[in-house]
Design a protein that fits this description.
Distance between the termini: 74 Å
Number of strands: 7
Number of helices: 5
Keywords: Hydrolase, Protein phosphatase
Radius of gyration: 22 Å
Family: Belongs to the POA1 family.
Strand content: 15-25%
Enzyme class: hydrolase
Catalytic activity: ADP-alpha-D-ribose 1''-phosphate + H2O = ADP-D-ribose + phosphate
EC number: 3.1.3.84
Structural class: alpha/beta
Helix content: 25-40%
Largest sheet: 7 strands, mixed
Length: 245
């Protein structure tokens, strides 16, 4: 009986000690970020609506929406757009036909989004969201101000489509507009955050950092030489003519 009493007292003391240990709040903003790093990425910056991470966007969970900015003439020929074309050839064909067949005037696509459902022959069950932010590319790319204005309209359209269609997967993006379109990432990020505050209904966008094609990529806040260069698991992006970011 005496031994049982001692054991009971020890248990009571342990429970009392545990209750005094403060529990650390690892997500004070209340954002659900479970599963965003299934591809092995490392979260580097958790804002209220845009979360930066090191990793490979193509390793996002099945059913996710992968977002990138596109031109309106049907070309995924360089930068991360070329990687999208190589990874999702059937989705590329849908995009190409949308630009060249369904719309005779490319400029009519500006500020809109083509949301491509998972294609049977493409891997991972990913949705592909094409934000039309510049009519053309290269020397004929639109100005940053025009691109940012179209980005807002296109992203708002994406959020509406996702709600209407009932897409359950998370939103995952590269640093749209910051590569071949030459727009400072910090400005695009602000545009996305503004849209999410107004139209996001609690959604967040996971944005992936990687060693960008031209070297010395921009940081998550738009400056040169992003944090953790070389640490990310993003793939090397192929070179080619024409493209998006």
């Amino acid at each position: 009986m005496e031994n049982q009493t001692r054991r009971q007292r020890a248990q009571d003391d342990a429970q009392s000690t545990e209750s005094e240990v403060p529990i650390k709040d690892t997500n004070p903003s209340g954002i659900n970020i479970d599963g965003i790093n299934d591809g092995g990425g490392e979260v580097v910056d958790g804002g209220e609506s845009v979360i930066m991470t090191f990793g490979d966007i193509f390793s996002a969970p099945a059913g996710s929406v992968l977002i990138h900015a596109c031109n309106c003439v049907g070309s995924w020929g360089a930068g991360i757009a070329l990687a999208f074309k190589q990874k999702y050839p059937a989705a590329y064909q849908v995009y190409h036909n949308h630009c060249t067949t369904a719309h005779s005037d490319p400029s009519s696509l500006l500020g809109t989004t083509l949301l491509i459902p998972p294609q049977e022959s493409d891997p991972d069950g990913h949705w592909i969201a094409c934000l039309f932010t510049s009519e053309r590319y290269g020397k004929r790319v639109d100005s940053p101000e025009m691109i940012l204005r179209r980005t807002k309209g296109a992203f708002e359209g994406l959020l509406e489509q996702v709600r209407r269609v009932g897409v359950d997967g998370g939103l995952h993006a590269c640093k749209i507009n910051s590569g071949r379109f030459g727009v400072d990432w910090g400005r695009t990020r602000e545009a996305l955050e503004e849209c999410l505050r107004v139209e996001g209904a609690g959604r967040v966008v996971v944005v992936y950092e990687f060693e960008e094609e031209l070297g010395g990529g921009q940081s998550s806040r738009g400056g040169r030489g992003g944090r953790g260069r070389g640490r990310g698991r993003g793939r090397v992006i192929g070179r080619g003519r024409g493209g998006t970011t």
